[in-house]
Amino acid sequence: MRTFRRGLFATLWILALAACASTPRFPVDEGVVEVTPREAKRDMPSLEGSQVLWGGVIVNATNLEERTRLEILAYPLDGRQKPDVEADPQGRFLAEAEGYLETADYTPGRRVTVSGTLKGTRKGRIGGAASPYPVVAVGGKELWAEDRRSPAGPRFHFGIGVIFGG
User: Fold this and answer.
1) CA 91 to CA 38: how far, in whole Å?
2) Helix/strand/coil for 26
3) CATH number for 100
4) Is 33 inside any structural domain?
5) Is residue 152 part of a domain?
6) Domain assignment of residue 105, yes or no
7) Could you name the Gene Ontology cellular component terms for this entry (predicted)?
8) What is the DSSP string of 29-41?
9) CB 35 within 8 A of CB 49
10) Does 112 fall in a domain?
11) In the predicted model, what is the mean pLDDT of residues 105-113?
């Protein structure tokens, strides 16, 4: 009986740990091309129509007549497919989603991951310089929760506590 309990406990423990493991939001299959926006801009004619999975930080969001265009500063994705803003940026791209996205939610500074099809490039501007941006027709998107952590730095906590109990 004791062996059965240990086995049951071990099985439940493994299942609980597996449930806590993070899984990617978008399935990555053989059709997804592993290329950065900077590389795609350079090699666009041959990449048009390819599937990509990119993420980054929203620079601008614009609602157009039948779609919403997001200008995104790209960063590499971590294991959860969330943009890793501690890494070096990988260029800018435009993500075009059919329909209306609430620009009050898709604000500059928010992290987003998109999957979709490369449609070519569109002229854009970074400051005063003209630059072509790769354009992704969005098939799926994940707007990540805002990071509410306080700024890094030393924290000191002082307190006096009394514990009663028996």
Assistant:
1) 5
2) coil
3) 2.40.50.140
4) yes
5) no
6) yes
7) outer membrane
8) -TTB----HHHHH
9) no
10) yes
11) 98
Q: How far is CA 63 from the centre of its chain?
A: 21
Residues 6+ away with beta carbon under 8 Å from 4? none
Q: For residues 105 and 108, what is the distance between their CA atoms, to the nearest angstrom?
A: 9
Q: Which domain holds residue 109?
A: 24-143
Quick one: pLDDT at residue 127?
Answer: 86
Tally of CA atoms within 13 A in the half-sphere of 11 that contains its CB: 6
Give the whole-angstrom CA distance, residue 54 versus residue 38.
Answer: 12
CA–CA separation, 106 and 68 (whole Å)? 10
Q: Write the CB contacts of 21 (distance below 8 Å, at least 6 apart in sequence).
A: none
Strand, coil or helix: 7: helix
pLDDT tens readout for residues 61-92: 999 999 999 999 999 999 999 999 999 999 99
pTM summary value: 0.75
Domains of the chain: total:
1
Rg (CA), the chain: 22
**pLDDT tens-place string over residues 133-151:** 999 999 999 999 987 665 5
